[in-house]
# Entry
Amino acid sequence: MTPDEIDRFITRAIAGEPAACARGCHWCCHQLVVLTCREDARAILDAARARLDTAGFTAFETQVREQAAAIAALGHDVAQAGRWTCPLLRDGACLVYDLRPVACRSVFSPDPECCRAMMEADDFGALTPAQQALATRIGERSFRLQIAINDRRPVDGAKELRQWLVELLDAGRNGER
Ligand code: SF4
Ligand code: SF4
# Structure
């Protein structure tokens, strides 16, 4: 499935539910992101290389490697409770919005303020009951959408975005793709 096909599938699945999501709204861009398709990660890395200048890409690679190492040291389950500003978030917007992972495409919220509260809260219990209910609904729907999309295309394995990028960066150094 191409990114456009994935978007059309998701649009049909959410059936006109209200969503405030748009490029530049980024409260949801401070967490771990799991990808299941190597080609998605490859497209993201190629786009980052093309859209950043040499110094920018070097800084991006350093950030990716540092975060990947920190996440690996903690372990995914512990790390996912933390705040991880995505290395692709540049000047408040996603550098690869047109190519963003399925996990990012499948998150829809009608209320950016709830997303901000979720990002800033130290734990789920700090949210109001209404925010907890919305956060749960967003998370469950995103999970269902990702499963449905994975059923429609090849799955290479579930890995966190930074881990995929480090693997591809290392492969590139070895002359592989
Ligand atoms: S999920 Fe929330 S933070 Fe993310 S784009 Fe949508 S409204 Fe904004
Ligand atoms: S890939 Fe883009 S949309 Fe997804 S978390 Fe990173 S900055 Fe946000």
